[in-house]
Amino acid sequence: MIDSQYLTGQLHKYFGFDRFKGQQEEVIKSLMEGNDAFVLMPTGGGKSLCYQLPALLLEGTAIVISPLIALMKNQVDSIRSFGTEDGIAYFLNSSLSKSAIQEVKEAVLKGKTKLLYVAPESLTKEDNIEFLKQIKVSFYAVDEAHCISEWGHDFRPEYRRIRPIIQEIGVAPVIALTATATAKVQHDIQKNLGMLDAKVFRSSFNRPNLYYEIRPKHKTTAEIIKFISNNQGKSGIIYCLSRKKVEQLAENLQVNGIKALPYHAGMDAATRSKHQDMFLMEEVDVIVATIAFGMGIDKPDVRYVIHYDIPKSLEGYYQETGRAGRDGGEGVCITYYSYKDIQKLEKFMQGKPVSEQEIGKQLLLDTVSYAESSVCRRKILLHYFGEIYHQDNCGACDNCLHPRERIEAGEELALALEAIVVVNQRYKMEHIANILVGISNAAVKSFKHDELDIFGLGKDHDNKFWHAIYRQAMIAGYINKEIENYGLLKLTDKGQAFLDNPGSFIMTKNHDYDAAIEEAAAQGGSSSGDPELFALLKDLRKKIAKKLDLPPFVIFQDPSLVDMSIQYPITLQELQNIQGVGQGKAMRYGKEFVELISQYVDENEIDRPQDIVVKSVAQKSKNKVTIIQNIDRKVSLDIIAKSLGMGMEDLLSEIEAIVNSGTKINIDYYIDDVMDDDYQNDIYDYFREESKEGSIEEAVKDLGENDYSVEDIRMVRIKFISEMGN
Question: How does pLDDT run across 81-96, given as a tens digit for each residue?
Answer without folding.
Answer: 776 676 888 888 877 8
